[in-house]
Structure formats: C-alpha cells, structure tokens
Amino acid sequence: MTHDGTISRPAIERPDSVYFFGTCLVDLFYPEAGMAGMDLLKRQGVRVVFPQGQSCCGQPAYNSGYREEALKVARAQLDYFPGDWPIVVPSGSCAGMMSKHWPDLFKGEPDEARARQVASRVWELTQFLVQVLKVKFEDQGPPVKITWHASCHAQREMGVTDEPKALLRQLANVELVELQREKECCGFGGTFAVRHPEISAAMVGDKVADIENTGAKAVVSGDCGCLMNISGALEAGRKPVRGVHIAQFLKERTHG
Amino acid sequence: MGETALKTNGINFAKASSAALQDQQLRGNFRRAMDGLMSKRAVQFADTAEWNGVRTLGASVRLRALSKLPELLEKLEANCTKNGIQVHWASTTDEANAIVLSIMQRVNAKLVVKGKSMVSEEMHLNAFLEKHGIESLESDLGEYIVQLDEAMPSHIIMPAIHMNTKQIAHLFKQKIKEAEYTEDVAQLTDLARRVLRKKFATADVGISGVNMAVAETGTLCLVENEGNGRMSTTVPPVHIAVMGLEKVVEKLEDVPPVISLLTRSATAQPITTYVNMISSPRKEGEKDGPNEIHLVILDNGRSAIYADEELRNTLRCIRCGACMNHCPVYTKVGGHAYQAPYPGPIGSILMPQVEGLETRGELPHACTMCNACVEICPVKIPIVEIMGRLRSEAVHPGDAVKGAGSHASKAEAMVWKGWSMTYASPLAYQFATALLAKLGNAAPASLPLLKEWTNVRSKPRFANRTLHALAREKGIPDV
Fold first, then answer.
1. How far apart are CA B281 and CA B286, in angstroms?
2. Residues forming CATH 3.40.50.10420 domain(s) in chain B
3. Residue to test with chain B: of A1, A2, A3, A204, most B Cβ within 10 A
4. Are A208 and A243 in contact (CB under 8 A)?
5. Domains and CATH numbers, chain A
6. Domain B69-300 is in which class?
7. pTM of the full predicted structure?
C-alpha cells in the first residue's frame, strides 16, 4: 500500500505467460475490448491464458452490501489462476476489487492466504503494458482528436494515473485533449446509476458537456462501467463522439 | 429497497436531492463554489511529499488519541477542572441541551451569542433555547445568514455556500430593519457586523464549539476567521463550549499539525485569522474573559461507534469539510438534500451511525464510491470502506449499528443470492451469459432498472458472442 492508499505493484520481470481476467461487463457488452487487450499482450510475445471458468470479481454484490454473496463469487475465481503468472485485467475497477478489497473480503476465511496470493498478482492492463512490458506503439491511424476519461478506481485504488495517457501519447497522429475535470466521477457507480438515477444523470451530463468542450471525436476510457454510462449518454444525446475502451483503441491504431 | 415500510421521519434523500437537481441556480452556486475550493486547496498541498508527511502525522495524532480515548477524556476533565473549566457529560443531545439550559437559567440568561459549532447543530440548540424563551444568535456570518433565512447550514465550514450574493442581499433587505438593498459584499458584511456588535456587548452567555481539546493541558482550541469566536468566548460573562467526545488530542504538540491540515483542507488557508487557545476563565487581576467556562462533552452515539474497530475510524474526523468539496454527488445536490447537520461523505457515514439506519440507511448509497473524498481526507478516514460496511449493516440484522437490518428486503436478497449462485458456477454462468447474448437485447427499455438507466442513456447492447465464446473460437488457451 502506498501513502495515498492505492495499491503498489512491485517491479517484476517480463513473464512468459499471463492470465487474462476479462470481467463480467466486458464478457457481455465489450468482448471486442477484451480480445483487443489479449491481442496487445500477445503481440509483446507473452502467452495469454484465458481461464474459461472465470466470471466476476464480486464487486456488484460487495458494493451493494451483500458480502457473503460477493465472497461466494470471488472464491469461485481462485481455482482458475493456479500458475504463478500475473493476472491482467482490462478494468481498474475490477482490478481494484481484487487487489484492494479481496483481502478484506476473505479476512478470517480459511482461504484468506490463497485469496491474498491471487490478489497480489493482479495488474490493470495499461499499468502492465507500461510498467512490465514497456510497450512502444507505432501509430498507423489517421489524425484524430480524442480525450481521456480516468476511471475512479483505476486512479484511486490501483494508482493508475499516467500510464494510459502515456500510451495514448505514443500515438503520433492522436491529439489528446484533457478534460477540464478529468478526475471527476462520471456517475456510474454500479448500482448507484439506477438507485439514484437523477443524480447519476446530472453527473454524466456534466461529463458529456466536458467531453464536448474538448472537441474530441472519441472519448477513451479503461473501464467498461464508465464507458457504458458515458457512451450511453453520448448516444442518447446524439453527440458525434464515440466511446471506446483503451485496449480496442490502441489495437485499432496499431494493427494496421 | 422496496417492500419494507421504514419510519423515515420525513427524511428522504432521493426526494430532496431530486428537488435540488431541478434548481439550476443552486446547482450553479455549488458547482462554482466547489470548483473554487478544490483548486485553492490543491495549491496548499502542491508539494506531494509534504502532503504525505503532514497527513501521516495528522492521521497518527488522531489515531493515537482514539486509541486511548477513555484515558484522555478523564485527563481532559481533570486538567480542565484544575484550570477552572467546569466539565459536564451528556450522553444524548437532550441531556446536553438540558445542561446548557440549566446554566442559562442559573444566570438568568435572555440572550446568547454563538460562535460556529456543528455539535450545537446536532443538538438543534437554537430551536431548543428559543422554546425556552432565550434568544440565541449565530455570530458567524454564514451561520447568521442561514439563521436569518430560517434554514439549515448546507456545508459544515461554509453554512451559506448554497446562496449567492444577490440572494443574501435580498434576505438582508427583507429581514434586517435598517438594511438598504446592496449587492456590495463589504457593505453587507458591515451591516451584519453592526447588528452583531450590539449583541456581543449585551449577551449573557457565549456558546462555542471546540476544534480540539488538549488532554494534557486542559486547553480548548478554536479556529475562526471573523473574530466572532473570540468575541463569543471572551465578552459575555459565561462561556459554554460544546464538543463531541472524539475531539480530544493528547498533547499540546499535537495541535499544530492538525490545525495546519484543518485550515488548509477547509478554506485553503495556511492558518486562520484567529486561533483561540482557551485555558481558564478570567483570573484575578485580568481585564477580560468570562467569569465561568463550561465544557459540555457530548456522546450521542459516539461511544457505540467507538466500540467497533472499523467504524471507529469515523471519529478521526477533524471537520474540515474537504470531503464535501470534492464529492461529485454533494456538488450536484448540495448540502440540504442530506437533511442532516453533517452532509456529504462524512455525514453519509456519521449520520447513520448516530441516528440509526432506519432513518439514515439511504445515505451510504448517496455515493458512487469514487474515492475522491478518501484521496483528500487529511486524516485518511477510509470513508468509502465504511460506506460499504454500512450498506451491509443496513440489510443484515446485527448489533454493531443502530437499525442494522432495517433495510433488509427479501426481494433484493433473493436477487443477489441468485446472482451469486449463477456467477459462482462456471456452467450456470456460461449458460446465462450465452442466453443474454442471444436474447438480452430484446428486453424492453421499460423494465425496472433499465427504465432508470435509459432515461438519459441508450440501452446497453449485449454483444452477439461473449468474451468466453470468442476466446474459445480464437483458440486462446484456458490453462
């Protein structure tokens, strides 16, 4: 744990293999982002393993106050990551749940040590690409102006702030215009969006206005919860801005 | 959610926040004010290493104080008594009000001037005194404005932050006899000052809060910017200070780091204009100061909070209000929507513990768990973790928090049980997700939850094939 309470990950050598934890939202709504994430890793010469038994980190139930149910689902994941390889997650929120909250969730349980061991191997995708694989991208796309939405849990639980923007800045033809309130929550908050729909609507309304002000053609994010919220609001408001996951955006720009 | 009939005493965050969201003036006032406060605070803590250092120190001061709270409170009482400060203990707000009233009645008080005190808001002291025929006048400018408006503070540091100058100008014109309409801030302030000055001179009792009480010296610390705190605590012949029992620190040397964190976090000031260190009533030969000082130490549920190791962290709070300024929910709905003396993130964890989850159980859900408050909390309170804990307490019967289990809903519990059974079984999960991929998009937008979602957003689109299916097709190894 660092000074600011975020997770710190030790410097590790480039592994031969990694696990990919796709997350339940990617699984159902953004599988192409998941495939792109695995593709980016494979292109760096890393073997990617996608355990078919995986489902969800348990966060939806955990944040709703149903910890036993969250524990049951979290526990079901433990069997599928037996190797000592890093577990790469294309979502700061799910990575944060596993890294930061699993140790609390499993506290006092017989498999606490095992859960902690798994949690300690979890990396957010962009963090892993930058810190461990030290990727260098060559942009092959046309000039485009984009903006970046920082997910709350990537920043404030995983401590991922500069990595995604550093990756986007490697792309020569991509102009990254920062939001005025880049760090402000988009109003998703899991069940918050439907529990307090009016407040959530006001929040995503502010986010959309901020995005529009940049003049960007696309808003890139590393979390599918935020993306579903923001691009849903962009679409409903008929704004000509596309919401896209960073893995998919990076793949599109560099795959030729 | 849903079927349980809760006695909410008219407290309804969803309804109040919905009304607040319609008020464009209010939303603009908060957005501008909070943006300003956030950027000014950031300048104060621009040096990350310094921030980490002072924050760690501040948190350790508060943690150490809490770790020996019973002992420090006894020491505080002994040293205050030695200094001539009379200490009173109140386990409820009713008791605290009764103590204050009995002191007032003994000195036959008719007029009270008050410095800013959130504990007195918690006690609803003004209304109580009024009922007993005692005029209680707020002397902090923001509190004075709110009192004139017959409203509640909307922020713990800046009580009238929901109003702009124009609104205050109209209020003054309407409520103060000698007022002429002006939007000039200096003239408005001067007007309030003239009204208050007369009252300071004639008040029988001064009431104040306490930012910190030092156990080893029996000293009460009070920070403020307007001098009204010093006036309230020195001019009237009797001074009554009210504090929550968590406000004690061990040593005098604990004061500077906490003050530095408090004032920089609250108002982006390196230090406030006035720092009052009150250590005794007027001594013989001294020319000013009250003849009597009373310290009322209020529990009001705090010792129950203290009993739980995780929830205890709530009591670290130094009431700087920075969590409000940085909260995206508070910024949208403003302080009044919380219908509580303490709004925003700290209020959302404190109020349910003080008043019970029956009436306050929705507040821990007034949060997206974005952690913006946790990031800037000067004493590192794990606000969001406590928020999660309270969500759990609200739906599970227990005895850690008053009203635990009061929000339990069989329907919701069944949904999560079904969810966990499906998501914990690879077979069930893959069957369910494959089904959703095929049929999910046919769900009408009028379904519950989907309806709330699609109010301002398009319907989420299920992909034709899940990531599991795509990974299998592409031959991605599974072990």
1. 10
2. 69-300
3. A3
4. no
5. 17-131 (no CATH), 136-254 (3.40.50.11810)
6. alpha beta
7. 0.96
